[in-house]
What does this fold into?
Amino acid sequence: MGNDASRAPSSSSATALWRARLRDTLTDGLWKNNPISIQVLGICSALAVTTRLENSLYMGAALVFVMAMTNVFVSILRKTIPRRIRMITEVAIISTFVIVFDRLLKAYYPSMSRQLGVYVPLIITNCIVMGRAEAFALHNPPFTSAVDGLSNGLGYAFVICLVGAVRELLGTGCLLGCTVLQPGWYTPNHLMILAPGAFFAMGFLIAIFNSLGQRGDEEEQP
It folds into this structure.
């Protein structure tokens, strides 16, 4: 009886720690340590594909899929991969899932595949994917690694979708092909769908994210 009583608190505390770890892992990728707004990684593809919200949604979906699956497989194989070839193995795993998504996109949505062009295959070289595989999946179990991949992928997707929505709305007056800002009172700002518009939108969003993050840190301090 005594042993059972001592095990119960230990088990509940371990479960609480595990849940807290998962919560921290989820919030880090989505907000606290967002790969674009905080770490400023993966900027090239984020700037290139955000001329429309639809493009951003598909690119975000691609990165969520690749990051989650890569993290899971790297975590599963983490104890069997020889250390000196681990990066080659990680690139091979990333490439496999990028090719799978690219083939599916070309088969079922060829027009979107043409619009995204080389940027889906270039996920292979995206430092966000490799960085999370190296920093997290190599040192954590599969489920936690999957959560980390999903959170960072969703954090990336969230930011590029915001940028895509702003650029399409201000640049064309439309959103997902539907007219939102009527031509009678709004003149589309075509600068927003050009390269400088991407820098302006991304810069303002990063500034807003950093401002909100600093304000949250100040409120948490006693």
